[in-house]
Design a protein that fits this description.
Helix content is 41%, strand content 17%. By secondary structure, it is an alpha/beta fold. It has one domain (2-294): Alpha-Beta Complex (Spore Coat Polysaccharide Biosynthesis Protein SpsA, Chain A), CATH 3.90.550. The longest helix has 36 residues, at 242-277.
Length: 299
């Protein structure tokens, strides 16, 4: 069932799909981070997995111009995500989990990037993570120039809260993938981006919430199996045999390692040195601004 929560708006330029299940504690802050972008022409599609904790009431209370709520029992996050994408009408689509946060001016940055680069199929960026109970803000590893083969042969992931793509390039995964719990994002974005033109922007567009009960922790015992399965399924789709996969991995390693292992470590080390030399003033100021001026408290 699709419920129009707010009034009709002009045709959207962007659709934000928000899968959520029993996310009452955090969904308000997530939706607030969308509203605070203050960009017209944004459609928000919340796909709720029949929550029982009041999530739907919180969604309905938000006065976003073009908000839709879908509430139904589903077979996991992937089905919820693809249900929302199928309902999207914006030219640009984005997947925002129901506990993550958009950073300031994310939408303007993305719209400008697509406008300046009409041949780009998707726009992506580095992410950050935040731990609200302790007031901490962390930078994730940099992923600029992440190519298809980097993504498949090794594991350097696109961050779902920092990826925007043209709806016309959407590729759906089959129902057999709906049982994924840990590597849902890896499977979806590996399939979506294959052979497409990506554009990295030098701005952290979203923030991943660190909390108890996340799938990566709750289904830890499934990690290795799902990781191998996602790679195997994608190799089958593109006609890459196990032997060729291993050969490609060996050949590609000298190209991958300097860009996505050594460079991120050097950048992380430089940031750490700068923080030590400056008594971490810049990061403390950034964290205070994030928590005091931007993030709506989850509790």
């Amino acid at each position: 069932m699709v419920e129009e929560v707010s009034g009709q708006a002009p045709p959207p330029i962007m659709s934000i799909v928000v899968p959520v299940m029993n996310g009452a504690r955090y969904i308000g802050a997530t939706l607030d981070s969308i509203a605070r972008q203050q960009v017209a022409g944004v459609e928000v599609i919340v796909v709720d997995g029949a929550s029982t904790d009041g999530t739907q009431d919180i969604v309905k209370a938000h006065d976003l111009p073009n908000l839709k709520l879908v509430s139904q029992i589903d077979r996991g996050q992937l089905e919820a995500l693809q249900t929302g994408i199928a309902l999207a009408t914006g030219e640009i689509v984005m997947w925002l989990n129901g506990d993550d946060i958009l950073m300031p001016d994310a939408f303007r940055t993305v719209i400008a990037a697509f406008a300046a680069n009409p041949h780009a199929d998707f726009v992506y960026a580095d992410s950050c993570a935040f731990d609200e109970p302790v007031g901490a803000l962390y930078y994730a590893a940099g992923i600029r120039d992440l190519q298809d083969w980097d993504h498949l042969l090794f594991y350097r992931q696109l961050y779902s809260e920092c990826v925007y793509w043209r709806r016309a390039i959407t590729r759906y995964l089959p129902e057999e993938s709906y049982d994924l719990r840990v590597y849902t994002d890896y499977a979806f974005f590996l399939n979506l981006r294959w052979g497409r033109r990506g554009l990295w922007v030098d701005r952290r567009l979203g923030a991943f919430r660190m909390r108890e009960g996340q799938n990566s922790r709750a289904f830890h015992e499934r990690e290795r199996h799902e990781y191998r399965r996602v790679k195997r399924d994608h190799c089958r789709r593109i006609g890459l045999s196990p032997m060729r996969y291993r050969i490609f991995q060996i050949v590609h390693a000298p190209w991958y390692l300097p860009r996505h292992v050594i460079r991120p470590k050097v950048e992380r080390g430089l940031r750490k040195l700068r923080r030590i030399l400056t008594a971490d003033r810049a990061r403390k100021i950034e964290a205070r601004a994030f928590y005091a001026d931007w993030l709506t408290p989850g509790d």
